[in-house]
Amino acid sequence: TAFREVSDALVAHRKVREVRAQRELLVTTLQDRARLAYMRYNGGVSNLLEALDADRELFDAELSLAQSRRDELLTVVQLYKALGGGWQL
After folding, report:
1. Distance (Å, whole) CA 3 – CA 78
2. How far apart are CA 2 and CA 72, in angstroms?
3. Disulfide-capable partner of 6 in 47, 54, 80, 82 (CB 3.0 to 4.6 Å)?
4. CB count in 10 Å sphere of residue 47
């Protein structure tokens, strides 16, 4: 039914928003980690591999965040369709 479709779309959108928020927090944390890893490397405390590993983890998290943003936009489209929205070309 239409009510069920709207309800499902709202639930999906809420869940995707929560995931996106968690991934934004992860990206922020990993940005700090990468910055500190490069500070440690530049200070001679650690090797370059540690800094590059921090960068790799950050890039993976940023990719995951971009996918979450895409998923969030797709749930908005699903909600719009469930509410009976039309398409204008």
Report:
1. 13
2. 21
3. 82
4. 12
Report the amino acid identity of residue 73: L
Q: Are 58 and 30 in contact (CB under 8 A)?
A: yes
pLDDT tens string 15-68: 999 999 999 999 999 999 999 999 999 999 999 999 999 999 999 999 999 999
Phi, psi angles (nearest 5°) of residue 47: -95, 170
Contact 82, 6 (CB under 8 A): yes
Tracing tokens 């809420």 back to the chain, one arrives at: 14
Torsion sign over Cα 63, 45, 36, 41: negative
Sign of CA dihedral 61, 65, 66, 68: positive
